[in-house]
Amino acid sequence: MFKTLMVALASFGLSAAVSAQELVEGQHYTLLATPVATNVDDGQIEVTEAFWYGCPHCYRLQTPVSEWYESLEDDVSIVHMPATMGGDWNIHANAFYAAKSLGIEEELHADFFEAIHEDGRALTDADDIAAFFADYGVSEEEAKQALTAFSVRSDVNKANSRMREMRLMGVPALVVDGRYVITPSTAGSLDNMPHIAGALIERVRSERTE
Question: What is the 3-state secondary structure (H, E, C) of the chain?
């Protein structure tokens, strides 16, 4: 009966009220054998969203996950982590951290996705990226300096190391508390990913009060 219930949830989309007790390790999420250190303040629960701007699945996840982020309580911190698998992936990761260093990442994030997937722009050339950044209150020269900054390259390298620690072989993925990894495959769909992550956040809260 329990298995039938889980199949139904996977088929029709998990309820937002699904509980952590209903989730099955290896079926709805994977558990890292070695937890990854989180980078948030004490008392906060970290949710890392691993993505690549060029990934169509990551783009389609943006609507459900963004709506979910708005509903989260104050003890949850969201960390956006661009995946680094070489080539255009690293170029886009570099663009993300350059935008973050310039203070325009939050404003630009959704638009960068849309420019690639709706407008057909590759945004893999430094001049094109700098021109794109110029629409957000920075000069192209400032953008180019940020794109080549040592601190930005360092952030990309850290993301690469963190992705390896999380054993991520693809994107999109949500990682809760440096331990629980949710992918479209384990969740059953993109829309299910936030529901499962939400239930795991409740599990973390429960664990911390025991």
Answer: CHHHHHHHHHHHCCCCCCCHHHCCECCCEEECCCCCCCCCCCCCEEEEEEECCCCHHHHHHHHHHHHHHHHCCCCEEEEEEECCCCHHHHHHHHHHHHHHHCCCHHHHHHHHHHHHHCCCCCCCCHHHHHHHHHHHCCCHHHHHHHHCCHHHHHHHHHHHHHHHHCCCCCCCEEEECCCEEECHHHHCCCCHHHHHHHHHHHHHHHHHHC
Q: What does the pLDDT average to over 178-206?
A: 96
108 Cβ neighbours under 8 A, 6+ residues apart: 99, 132, 133, 136
Record the pTM. Answer: 0.89
Write the CB contacts of 80 (distance below 8 Å, at least 6 apart in sequence).
48, 49, 51, 96, 105, 109
Contact 50, 172 (CB under 8 A): yes
Tokens of 127: 């001049």
The torsion angles phi and psi of 26, rounded to 5 degrees, stand at 90, -15
Q: How many CB atoms lie within 10 A of CB 83?
A: 24
Query: For the chain, what is the mean pLDDT?
Result: 91
* Spatial separation of the C-alpha atoms in residues 78 and 39, rounded to whole Å: 10
